[in-house]
Design goal:
396 residues; Elongation Factor Tu (Ef-tu), domain 3; single chain; six-stranded antiparallel β-barrel; OB fold (Dihydrolipoamide Acetyltransferase, E2P); conserved putative lor/sdh protein from methanococcus maripaludis s2 fold; elongated; alpha+beta; 4 domains; 36% strand
């Protein structure tokens, strides 16, 4: 009896195991096969072809075309200040007046001495003429006559010295009136009326000529031959832009380059001249300078983020019409403001990936997403007319 029950229990257990195995097998059959890689979401842009200005960029410092520091050439009290700080003045305009009384008295004294010595010279010449005649008559000796000739010559020398003293005194008096040696904008007044100043002791005010105005800057020595070549063909255009989004720009030309390269930095100093008729540029101001070197005709351009760098060099992902991605080696050219020219490897009108490259597999499917910001996926050809390229850079 017990044996029959044991076999029944064992049979039940085996039946349960078989049912479980069958269930597992059935579930395994229901598991779906792995699907393919899903399309990679990307943002794209269209490569375009256009004329691109190749330009060299630098940071410059504005400098006055002429700058004069006004100092007194004599000592005295300032009796008049004939201008306001920050005022524009013309050449020859009155700036300062010093007390002239001491120098007027010096002129009168020098003129009196001159008049006295003029009389002495006249009498000495008359005495010499008279004694010269007496020598002929045999009344006096030649030696006596020569003494009067010497007196006359000495009086003539004194008269010349007196005349120089009068001229010097008049010049000193003229220094009491200080006028503007150039036209320009006046700076801060350093000494007010009523103060006594010493000759060449302190700067009274500075005049800066703002029209035209210059910008000093440096460029790498490797760009010097091209600058020289462009200058032989005429003026080389330069545009100055005040940083900070102010919209202040001024157009000018390269007016000077130094005669030596700085061996410490490998750069050479240049200057650009600007008319500055609106007086928007000021000495000491930093500006962004752009020198137009040439126009690259029919260049292929793409956003800079499309160009990637791998072990074999630079490449881009090109989206084919069937929405598959192709890895394409390229050679990039000049770049500026997020845009890069492509020298080879890409044709106008081809669609390149500018965002989402990490998820793209060569030959794999892609899904083109709308740009996060309006206009982010526009054709690359809209950026270069406003922001030119910088030679010697790449699209990294």
């Amino acid at each position: 009896m017990r044996s029959s029950k044991a076999w029944t229990a064992r049979g039940s257990m085996m039946l349960l195991v078989m049912v479980a195995l069958a269930t597992v097998a059935a579930c395994a059959k229901k598991v779906e096969k792995p699907k393919g890689r899903p399309p990679a979401p990307v943002i794209t842009a269209i490569a375009s072809q256009q004329d691109v200005p190749l330009q060299l960029r630098a940071i410059g410092t504005m400098e006055a075309s002429e700058s004069v520091t006004i100092r007194t050439q004599i000592s005295g009290e300032i009796t008049k200040v004939a201008f306001r700080e920050g005022q524009d003045v013309q050449k020859g305009a009155l700036l300062f007046q010093l007390d002239p009384r001491v120098y007027q008295a010096a002129i009168r004294k020098a003129e009196a001495t001159l008049a006295r010595d003029r009389v002495i010279l006249t009498n000495a010449r008359k005495d010499f003429e008279r004694y010269s005649q007496l020598v002929k008559d045999g009344i006096v000796t030649q030696e006596q006559a020569e003494g009067y000739r010497t007196r006359a010559e000495s009086a003539a020398a004194d008269l010349s010295s007196d005349q120089a003293a009068v001229d010097s005194a008049r010049e000193q008096l003229a220094y009491c009136t200080i006028t503007a040696p150039i036209g320009g904008r006046l700076g801060v007044l350093a000494v007010d009326r009523g103060n006594v100043v010493k000759a060449n002791d302190i700067a009274l005010v500075t005049i800066n000529k703002l029209t035209p105005i210059h910008a000093g800057f440096t460029i790498p020595e490797k760009n010097l031959p091209e600058i020289q070549q462009r200058l032989t063909g005429g003026k080389l255009a330069v545009e100055a832009e005040v940083p900070g989004g102010t919209g202040v720009t001024e157009k000018g030309f390269v007016s000077f380059f130094d005669n030596t390269v700085d061996p410490a930095t490998g750069t050479i100093r240049l200057k650009a001249a600007f008319d500055n008729t609106k007086k928007q540029l000021w000495p000491g101001q930093f500006v962004n300078l752009t020198i137009t070197l040439a126009i690259k005709k029919n260049a292929v351009v793409v956003p800079g983020q499309a160009v990637q760098t791998g072990q074999k060099g630079q490449y881009v992902f090109v989206v084919k019409p069937d929405l598959t991605a192709e890895i394409r080696p390229v050679v990039s050219g000049p770049a500026a403001r997020g845009m890069t020219t492509i020298e080879s490897g890409l044709k106008p009108g081809e669609q390149v990936v500018i965002d989402g490259q990490m998820r793209v597999v060569p030959g794999g499917k892609v899904e083109i997403k709308p740009p996060e910001k309006p206009g982010a996926a526009k054709s690359a050809g809209t950026a270069f007319p406003e922001k030119p390229l910088q030679p010697g850079t790449n699209g990294k």
